[in-house]
Amino acid sequence: xxxxxxxxxxxxxxxxxFLLSACNFPFTISIDTAVPTAxxxxxxxxxxxxxxxxxPTPTEEPPVPLDTAEPTPTTEPPTDTPEPAGCTxxxxxxxxxxxxxxxxxxADSSFTKTxxxxxxxxxxxxxxxxxxxxxxxxxxxxxxxALPGSVPPGSTVDISSGMTAPTDAGTxxxxxxxxxxxxxxxxxxxxxxxxxWVKIVVPSExxxxxFEPLVPVFEAYLLxxxxxxxxxxxxxxxxxxxxxxxxxxxxxxxxxxxEHSFFLFxxxxxxxxxxxxxxxxxxSEAPTRDQxxxxxxxxxxxxxxxxxxxxxxxxxNFGWIKITNFNSSVVMFDFATFNEP
Length: 341
Fold this sequence. Notes:
By secondary structure, the protein is mainly beta.
């Protein structure tokens, strides 16, 4: 088939003629701008016909304002913690500052008991700690009293409690403990469970009165031929137990000699009986004459001990001697020679 081609110039003339004639057509074309609806917020475009095309309204996210406020703290304010978590409470008794055990206190009189304790735990004792009554005789003491101040571990503190002695005679003992700031009781000992105490004696009205014998000198005169207390005798000195005096060692009345010697770094303190005098160790109590008579005495030299010895003098009298002290230069002793041979 043969195709007919229109020149470009002819096409342009036809389009221009059409546009000029259109100015006289009996209708108009109007374009309305989009108006948002009241209910849905969507835009409606009126195309001039019986139908309208609804277009979705673009949705834009609102701008997020910058938050310039200070951040809220996430931690709680610190609280007052007087002692570290997990620390231990132990105490050690050091001494009785006042009123040691068995101190006599007059009936119905006031006194203040003071203990010295050491903090052997790992907690620091504060004024929120207290001394509290545990059991026994409270003696009108306060049921509890706060500690005087801070006591770090390893430190000592004097703790006191005022009390009143009972009105009746007798022995009274009250036991006390410490209480921590969280209400836990503790005391002394390896496990901190032992209470410390106060122990006093209220004497009866007739106690403390000493009745001296009416004739002590006369009684001693009848019982003993000679006696003495706190006698002393120097090294290489001699003594007469019948007369109760120091004499020369050449005297026939000399009953014993005190001797001190030093040999191979060893000191020896000895009694050397003289003129047939015999001695025998008795014990820690003074013997009677009959007890000394029953012993087998010896005239041999013997080493000293702080004890009682029986003896028989050169005059045949029995007695006892108590060695109270001795050193390289002197011996101290008490003695009594019975009056009957």
